[in-house]
Fold this sequence. Notes:
- The chain is mostly beta strands.
- The chain is 10% helix and 36% strand.
- α4 crosses α5.
- The longest helix has 16 residues, at 7-22.
- Residues 386-387, 414, 416, 418, 464, 466, 468 line the site of calcium ion.
- Calcium ion binds at residues 386-387, 414, 416, 418, 464, 466, 468.
Amino acid sequence: MKKRIVAIPVSILLIISSLAIVSPSKILKVSGNTLYVGGDGSGNYTRIQDAVDNASSGDTVFVYSGTYNENILVDKTIFLIGEEKENTIIDGNKTDDVMKIISNNVIINGFTIKNSGNDHDPKDTLNSDSGIDIQSDFVTISNNIIANNLIGLSTRGISSKNNLMIKDNLFIYNNENEKKDNLAIDCYGCYLMYTDHSKILNNEFYYNDNAIRISYSDNNEITYNKIINLTNNNAYGIYIKTSNFNIFSNNYIKNTSIGIWIYSLADLIIGNIICNNTIIESFYALLMQFCSSNYIFGNLIKNNDYGIHLNYSTDNNFYHNDFINNIENAYDDMNNFWYNTVSDEGNFWDDYTGEDADQNEIGDTPYNIAGGSNQDKYPLIKPKHNIAPEKPTITGKPSGKHGTEYEYKFISTDLNGDEISYYVDWGDNSTTGWTRTLPSGEYYNSSHTWSIKENYTIRAKAKDTRGAESEWETLEVSMPKSKEIKTSLFLQRFFQRFPFFEKILKRIVSLKNQ
Ligand code: CA
């Protein structure tokens, strides 16, 4: 008997029925047989490839948890389902593609797919070793962990691919350091090439050299992905090379050398929409080179060295973007539209100094873009996104006597003009709780008495009426200041050897402080 023969078909049906909804395929069937791999059922296969080879088109291959050291070729229409993605592991042992898919209408769900080889084709005409290499259409890759590969998921190679769905996967450790083989090339999470009408949706990317690359690929949607680069290499979030009419929206990109890079050597890149993304703490948030007639709107561009930087690009449209706390918000040495030419609404620039006398929330004077003579003629007075208040400034006496009441002042501002409440932790296990709201830029005053002689850290944070909280600000106070033991390097070494004397000295100082 097969293990858990009653429970499994039900769970498979659930998985398949949920996948059938999201799959772009028009001809999926769920009426095939199920072949089992692993587990302890009699007749179960030991190798995934043997089950695939013996499956017919439309069958399901269900794989029980375990580690399978294989390189798998999927050359027929099957559903390949792992029992549990963390524990159903296909390991390529650093050789070749871990899985290669050459048939249409394939679904891969529920695996860890790791350790591809390191063979790399610099000319892009052949595929490089990948966790999953797709060379066919209507393939769905969902709910997998794709780790430690040269390229996590690749569609490189000159054949055209269409209607792929890459959804809910975790791409992790697809990076050079992790491979530890002194590779002279970059590793990638997901690399699409000659791929059209496909979706990369709701995936997470961590510790990849580069998260997503799209080359020579049109009409795709790259949405709701979370990309946080934590390697030390030059790394980009999304690299768009010679690809047109794609949508990149609602992605969260943090800590990259280039958040989104659009680049072409030969033709102008046109018709892409880049909207509602958050790009923070990167060197360039958005770098565009040889681009024309792309639309960039509704993005939050915050805490980067460079916000949007354009070279050799004309007639692109930028509006409703929020530029906050970048060293240089924007640079444009040619001619582009820095406002919506229909609605006459521009972008929010945190360094805009103009007035809004008629209070229509559009600045009365243009904002100058660095690099040339471009202007945002209609700069927004408030950001489009809700921005948390600044962390509060704390003022008040840094030292005093215990048992005496002192007043402290707290102030923060909110770029949206929201009202602000404050939360103060006095450092002695007492807090103010969240206060009533005050207008942005108005002081909150509060007094406190510390009853015990000690040093304390006052911590304060601010929250806007929409619930967005600032970071903590701190102020050290002494009630009164204790005499610290300032030890020289000589004394530190002495105490390391004779810790007993340090104890004695500390005891003497604490007695004097009482
Ligand atoms: Ca706000």
